[in-house]
From TrEMBL:
It comes from Rhodococcus chondri. This is RNA polymerase subunit sigma-24. InterPro entries: WH-like_DNA-bd_sf. It comes from the Bacteria.
Length: 161
């Protein structure tokens, strides 16, 4: 990651052990740093796979199908990051939206009738992927407070079922 890019985006010059966040790596890739791609993929694939696996399991598809779809999601995200408009995207929201669209196309929309789609997505992000309320809020485009309300409602419905 270049010094100029770090200054422009207010990114610290170094981290303990040389580690960067997924968003910092995405910014670096968007700025043309091809050397950041492997590190970004190592960080991006596990949550993409976890999301795709959760969606596959709910519809009776195999984890192999989900893992292949996660690779497609990663390729799509890298392709967009490499485009001229890549740096203008909200990385977390864009990546989540890409995974949702791909999973809907491949596995169909979730059909659980006791929960809303937002409640289902909240549970996947919070319980399976381990996102905190803030990360979940960014991905879903809602407030952290709404995340907690949706999670509470979903768990109440889940327990009652």
């Amino acid at each position: 990651m270049s010094t100029e890019y770090r200054k422009l985006h207010h990114i610290p010059a170094g981290r303990a052990g040389g580690r960067f966040t997924m968003c910092e790596l995405a910014w670096s890739v968007a700025a043309g740093d091809a050397a950041a791609i492997p590190a970004l993929l190592r960080m991006l694939y596990p949550p993409a796979s976890g999301y795709c696996r959760a969606r596959a399991r709910a519809t009776g598809h195999s984890f192999d199908d989900a893992d292949r779809l996660a690779l497609e999601v990663c390729r799509t995200v890298l392709g967009v990051l490499s485009s001229p408009a890549g740096a203008q995207r909200d990385f977390v929201r864009f990546t989540y939206s890409t995974a949702v669209v791909a999973a809907d196309r491949r596995f169909g929309a979730p059909t659980d009738t006791c929960m809303t789609r937002l409640q289902q997505e909240t549970l996947i992000l919070r319980t399976i992927l381990g996102f905190d309320a803030g990360q979940t809020a960014v991905a879903l485009g809602i407030t952290p407070q709404r995340v907690l309300v949706e999670q509470h409602a979903a768990l109440r419905l889940f327990r009652a079922a």
